[in-house]
Design a protein that fits this description.
The protein is of the alpha/beta class and 420 residues long. It has 13 helices and 17 strands. The chain folds into three domains: 36 residues; 185 residues, Medium-chain alcohol dehydrogenases, catalytic domain (Quinone Oxidoreductase, Chain A, domain 1), CATH 3.90.180; 147 residues, Rossmann fold. Helices cover 33% and strands 23% of the residues. Helix 6 crosses helix 12 and helix 7 packs parallel to helix 8. The chain starts with a strand and ends in an 8-residue tail after the last strand.
Length: 420
């Protein structure tokens, strides 16, 4: 028999001198590789924990308008460029209440998600620079990454993650239907699929999950205040609406060093207006008791504010934003609707910049996560309630003012025990 050389898995070359040695070596090498693969699988199980190896997950499915039920789903196989997230918390956005009242599509809601990676494909590990056990927050978007919108950095408007497009043409966490592949596209579940197009942010250990679940509304406040309104140190701002995003805008304005932060709301918003003061607002205005425009000009020595933000979406709030802003100032609005008697002459005479705002950039989310993780703010004043998976209906209704009182931002904690 001719001489043959083999390299076993330990890296050493061995000389094979006869057929008996060749057979013995081949069987030994195969056995070693079986043992090695078994050890690797055991290591994955150790890293991922018991839940990572579960074959089912519980999720709250929105089945119709104002209806939710618990269902079990199979844990899908994980593609090479994908992963699996074990949810720690999933925040409930103000927009979820509107969707819950209008959208009949069966889906797992929840697009403000934070959790821990429990499974990861080989390519995903490389592409995302992640490993099993890493803690991350997700944006709601799943952009294509290839179109001109994505390539210029505004991927929130990518047609493939834009919910205003035709059904079946887009994907988005908290909105994609349960009949799309495995269905695990929302945070009101114990596990969620990490699509290859996920937009991922690393988050620190030790930061409360229900605080990190506010990263999306907080990033909207950052985006609209800093990047869209262009607020700078020493300037003045009017923020209309002390909801999740209005309070986030207060934090952003305070962090930017605004000289005067004015927040307005209704009489029923009294508790939220007090939270705004604790977040850095200098003045609060109850528009049902005081004339907003008169008060703003009084507080700014007759000049008006550098930036006015309509985050309330009331019948007069955009008009008031334009009227409250100073010459060459900026007014931003985050809600739609038709406006009667639009003050075009006021806008033109003062050369006001009017900007529609929607969503957030990657950098705004990074900034929001840093704000949350700093520990500098009393965020429990905003993160008011946490619910289990079997309480999703109550939680969403609470955001809409029909559930528990005093809710501002609430989260689903999927690990919380559900009722038998």
């Amino acid at each position: 028999m001719e001489e043959r050389w083999r390299q076993p898995i330990n890296g050493e070359f061995l000389k094979i001198e006869n057929s008996h040695q060749w057979i013995w070596f081949s069987i030994s090498e195969i056995w070693c590789r079986v043992i090695q693969r078994t050890a690797q699988n055991m290591q994955i199980k150790i890293q991922g924990g018991h839940n990572a190896m579960a074959d089912k997950t519980l999720a709250a499915v929105t089945t119709d308008i104002l209806k939710t039920e618990l269902r079990e789903f199979d844990i899908p196989d994980i593609a090479e460029d994908a992963g699996l997230l074990e949810l720690e918390a999933a925040g409930i956005c103000g927009s979820d209440w509107g969707s819950y009242q209008r959208n009949k599509t069966p889906r797992i809601m929840g697009h403000e998600n934070v959790g821990r990676v429990v499974k990861l494909g080989r390519l995903a590990e490389r592409n995302w620079d992640l490993k099993v056990g890493d803690r991350i927050a997700l944006e709601e978007y799943m952009p294509c990454g290839q179109c001109d919108i994505c390539r210029t950095g505004d991927f929130r408007l990518c047609p493939q993650t834009e919910t205003r497009g035709p059904a079946g043409t887009w994907m988005r966490y908290g909105s994609s239907p349960v009949d799309l592949e495995h269905g695990l596209w929302g945070g009101y579940s114990r596990f969620m699929y990490l699509h290859p197009r996920s937009v991922i942010h690393r988050v620190k250990e030790g930061v409360p999950a229900h605080h990190l679940a506010m990263a999306i509304p907080m990033s909207n406040g950052v985006q609209w205040t800093e990047y869209d309104a262009g607020l700078r140190m020493g300037q003045t701002v009017l923020i209309q609406g002390p909801g999740q995003q209005g309070l986030a805008a207060v934090l952003a304005a305070s962090k930017l060093g605004a000289e005067r932060i004015i927040v307005s709301g209704l009489t029923r918003d009294a508790a939220r207006l007090e939270v705004a003061k604790k977040f850095g607002a200098h003045d609060i205005i109850d528009v049902e008791k005081e004339d907003l425009i008169e008060k703003v000009y009084d507080l700014t020595n007759g000049k008006g504010v550098d930036a006015a933000m309509d985050l309330a979406g009331g019948p007069d709030t955009l008009v008031n934003a334009i009227r409250a802003v100073k010459k060459t100032g900026t007014a931003v609005f985050a809600t739609g609707g038709n406006i009667e008697n639009f003050p075009a002459n006021d806008m033109r005479s003062k050369r006001v910049t009017l900007r529609a705002v929607r969503g957030h950039s990657y950098q705004a989310v990074e900034t929001a996560i840093r704000l949350i993780s700093s520990g500098d703010y009393p965020l429990d004043l905003m993160a008011t309630h946490q619910f289990a998976l079997d309480e999703v209906d109550l939680a969403v209704r609470s955001i809409g003012g029909e559930g528990v009182e005093g809710a501002i931002h609430v989260s689903i904690i999927p690990s919380k025990e559900v009722a038998a």
